[in-house]
C-alpha cells in the first residue's frame, strides 16, 4: 500500500504541474506519460548525458543549409512533400538520449538535404558501437556524429532498439 501512495502522490504532483503549465500560455503543452508517477530521483537516474566537452577536432558539424527565416519542420515538408520529423520515441530505462537526438538529426538532415523520404536510423547501433561513449550510461552527440562519418547508417528495422548495452553488431548488419 505504501508504494501505491507514493505513486499516487507523484502523479498528483505532476498533474498539478501539467495543469498550471498548460494554463500559462506557453508555446507548447505538456501531458501525462509513463513517467508521471516517478520520483525526481528515478527520473534523474536515466539522465545520463556526458557533459565532458569534446576537443575541438572531435566536434562534428551538421548543416541543413542557411536560412534567414526559421523553419518549423514539424509543419513543413521537403521539396518532395515528405515530412522530415520522426515521432517522439521512448528510450526506456537506457540513458541513450544522445543516440536518439543524433539519429533524429541525421534522419531529418537526410530527408531535407536529399529531398528523400524520412528514414529512421538505428539508435541501438550507436548504443552498442560508439566506443567513445558509454552506451546506456550516457554519451555525446559530437562523438556519435564522428562515428557516423566513418560508418554507414543502419536502419532501425535492421538493427532495432532494445534499450540495453549489447555487443556491437555493425559488420553483420552492413553486409
- Mean model confidence by pLDDT: 85
Strand content: under 5%
Provide the CATH architecture of the largest domain: Alpha-Beta Complex
Tell me the overall shape: globular
Radius of gyration: 19 Å
Terminal Cα separation, in Å? 53 Å
Briefly note the structural class of the backbone. mainly alpha
Helix and strand run: HHHHHH
Q: Name the CATH superfamily assignment of the largest domain.
A: Cysteine proteinases
Taking the sheet with the most strands, its summary is: none
Please provide a written account of the structure.
The chain has 175 residues and is mainly alpha-helical. It has 2 domains: 1-45, no CATH class; 46-174, Cathepsin B, Chain A (Alpha-Beta Complex). Helix content is 38%, strand content 0%. It has helices at 2-23, 40-45, 97-113, 123-129, 141-149, 170-174. α3 packs across α5. The longest helix is centred in the N-terminal third of the chain and has 22 residues, at 2-23. The N and C termini lie far apart (53 Å). The mean pLDDT is 85.
Amino acid at each position: 500500500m505504501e508504494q501505491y501512495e507514493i505513486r499516487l502522490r507523484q502523479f498528483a504532483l505532476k498533474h498539478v504541474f501539467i495543469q498550471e503549465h498548460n494554463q500559462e500560455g506557453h508555446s507548447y503543452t505538456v501531458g501525462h506519460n509513463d513517467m508521471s508517477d516517478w520520483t525526481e530521483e528515478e527520473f534523474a537516474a536515466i539522465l545520463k548525458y556526458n557533459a565532458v566537452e569534446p576537443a575541438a577536432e572531435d566536434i562534428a558539424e551538421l548543416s541543413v543549409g542557411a536560412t534567414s527565416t526559421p523553419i518549423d519542420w514539424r509543419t513543413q515538408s521537403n521539396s518532395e512533400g515528405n515530412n522530415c520529423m520522426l515521432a517522439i520515441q521512448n528510450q526506456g530505462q537506457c540513458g541513450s538520449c544522445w543516440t536518439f537526438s543524433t539519429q533524429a538529426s541525421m534522419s531529418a538532415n537526410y530527408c531535407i538535404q536529399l529531398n528523400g523520404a524520412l528514414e529512421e536510423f538505428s539508435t541501438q547501433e550507436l548504443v552498442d558501437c560508439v566506443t567513445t561513449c558509454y552506451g546506456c550510461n550516457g554519451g555525446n552527440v559530437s562523438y556519435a556524429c564522428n562515428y557516423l562519418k566513418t560508418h554507414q547508417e543502419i536502419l532501425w528495422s535492421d538493427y532495432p532498439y532494445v534499450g540495453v548495452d549489447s555487443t556491437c553488431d555493425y559488420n553483420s548488419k552492413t553486409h
